[in-house]
Amino acid sequence: MRPLFADPKTDFVFKRIFGVEEHKPLLIALLNGLLELDEEHRVVEVELLSPEQRPKVQELKYSIVDVKCVDARGTRYVVEMQVLNVEGFEKRVVYNVAKAYTSQLEGGQVYPDLDDVIGVTVCDFELWPRREAPRVPMLSRWRMQEQHGGARGLGQLQFVFLELPKYDTSHPPRTAVEKWAYFFREASNLEVVPEVLAERPYKDALEAARVARFTDAEWDAYIRAGMAIQDERGALSLARKEGKAEGLQEGLEKGKKEGLEKGKKEGLEKGKKEGLEKGKKEGLRAAIRGILRQRGLTLGAQEEARLEGCEDPSTLERWLAQALTAASAVKALR
Predict the structure, then answer these.
(1) pTM
(2) Which helix (DSSP H) or strand (DSSP E) does residue 83 occupy?
(3) What does the alpha-carbon distance between residue 83 and residue 106 come to, in Å, rounded to a whole number?
(4) Rounded to 5 degrees, what are φ and ψ at 316?
(5) What ranges in 120-215 are assigned the alpha helix state H?
(6) Residue 212: phi, psi to the nearest 5?
(7) What number of H helices and E strands is found in the chain?
(8) Cα–Cα dist 33/138, whole Å
(9) 71: enclosing H helix or E strand
(10) Closest Cα partner for 332 from 247, 229, 255, 258?
């Protein structure tokens, strides 16, 4: 049995809602909501860029959509839906926005005429985990800042992130930001139009995602998009499990061998105990290396020395947990 509404976090549905001419008011509403613009600065019109004008970034295949548009003031927007936290994600977002900025030169514009670019990314994962400091809110905005006095400048490139898992479910959505977050998270689970989404633009967004409006071909495209996401998510999960298992096994074997050798020299019981303790630490170190290796992340000389020199099992266990999601080897060992 088909659901009432399709998942707006998939490629096909996101573009259907925000990337076509007939639904431009929804894209405008999303931008105004997530950018929290006042009446004087609200986006009132957008022009969707043609596929030929959209920068092609092959490495961003995990980013579900490349809806790019420009408003009446000339500001350009790169709007993305990201469902998987992949290696180097932040760098890819920066690259995509920078590419949209520099590509204006290809159209004959000169530096003084370049328009600002704002990247708006909806993440179906925690890009900055809540358990880590500093605490980053569900909706965050980023731009350059002078590091001594805190003055803001060089605002030609800006970034906005909406991290859906940080949505507070303890109360009904009240603000525009919360309503959009609720829409993205819960649309595919709804059996009726809830009161909090019964007004425009949220009601119109739900109507655009209504499965009854899909043709058979569109439904098939939607199912394929969802399966592709699940396949990628499963592949990443398997790689992490295999890396962890590989590292633990390697460490335990090494610890067992060293423990037996030490036991022969210093006494069997004492050697076994120390060997097991050392084996556990070696196992944790090897597990960290294994997971990072499976995720394509490399420990530099400084990180390798820090990992090898750590003798605190609780710290190693914390690093092991961080290695599963950290964007870099440096962040994994913080």
Answers:
(1) 0.67
(2) none
(3) 31
(4) -65, -40
(5) 176-186, 202-208
(6) -60, -20
(7) 10, 6
(8) 13
(9) strand 63-71
(10) 247
